[in-house]
């Protein structure tokens, strides 16, 4: 057995011990680091795809920006309307009874009065 074999064996034992200690001391953190790495990889790939898409179709970027602006404005107006509805208005009120306006008498020579009198004549014959 050469010295190189003994050194590589010792190094493998040392690496194994470090890995075991890391696994036992940081089980929750390792999962978080793995999730973070996966999220960063997905974000990097996504930005690459979006960058290519925007370079080829700049109108898509303009449309997306306009849609985001319209959505923001709609949410802003909705919140403003909700705040206005939640406000309490202090004051006094009184009840006003509804009254019908008096009917105007139709002129005797108008077409409306002739129709009404014709209807009255036919109903009385039955």
List the helices and strands and how they pair.
Elements: H1 3-25, H2 27-56, H3 58-86, H4 111-125
Helix pairs in contact: 2-3
Description of the structure:
It is a single chain. With 126 residues, the chain is an all-alpha fold. The protein has helices at residues 3-25, 27-56, 58-86, 111-125. The model has no long low-confidence stretch (mean pLDDT 75). Residues 107-126 have a biased composition (Low complexity). The chain crosses the membrane at residues 58-75. It comes from Luteimonas kalidii. This is Transmembrane protein.
Question: What would a concise description of this structure say?
Answer:
Helix content is 77%, strand content 0%. It has 126 residues and is mainly alpha-helical.
Alpha-carbon Rg, integer: 42 Å
Major sheet: size, sense and barrel closure?
none
> Based on helices, strands and strand pairing, what is the structural class?
mainly alpha
Give the SSE string. HHHH
Low-pLDDT runs: none
Name the shape in a single word: elongated
* Portion in strands: under 5%
Q: Helical proportion? A: over 70%
Determine the mean pLDDT: 75
Terminus-to-terminus distance = 131 Å
The count of DSSP E runs of length 2 or more, i.e. the number of strands, is 0
Number of helical regions: 4
Assembly type of the chains comes to single chain
Organism: Luteimonas kalidii
Keywords: Membrane, Transmembrane, Transmembrane helix
Protein name: Transmembrane protein
């Amino acid at each position: 057995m050469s010295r190189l074999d003994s050194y590589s064996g010792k190094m493998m034992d040392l690496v194994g011990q470090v890995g075991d200690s890391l696994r036992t001391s940081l089980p929750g953190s390792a999962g978080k680091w793995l999730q973070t790495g996966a999220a960063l990889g997905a974000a990097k790939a996504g930005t690459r795809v979006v960058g290519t898409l925007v370079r080829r179709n700049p109108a898509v970027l303009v449309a997306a920006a306009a849609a985001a602006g319209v959505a923001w404005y709609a949410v802003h107006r909705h919140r403003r309307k909700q705040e206005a509805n939640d406000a309490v208005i202090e004051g006094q009120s009184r009840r006003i009874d509804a009254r019908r306006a008096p009917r105007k008498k139709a002129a005797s020579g108008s077409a409306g009065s002739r129709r009404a009198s014709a209807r009255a004549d036919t109903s009385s014959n039955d």
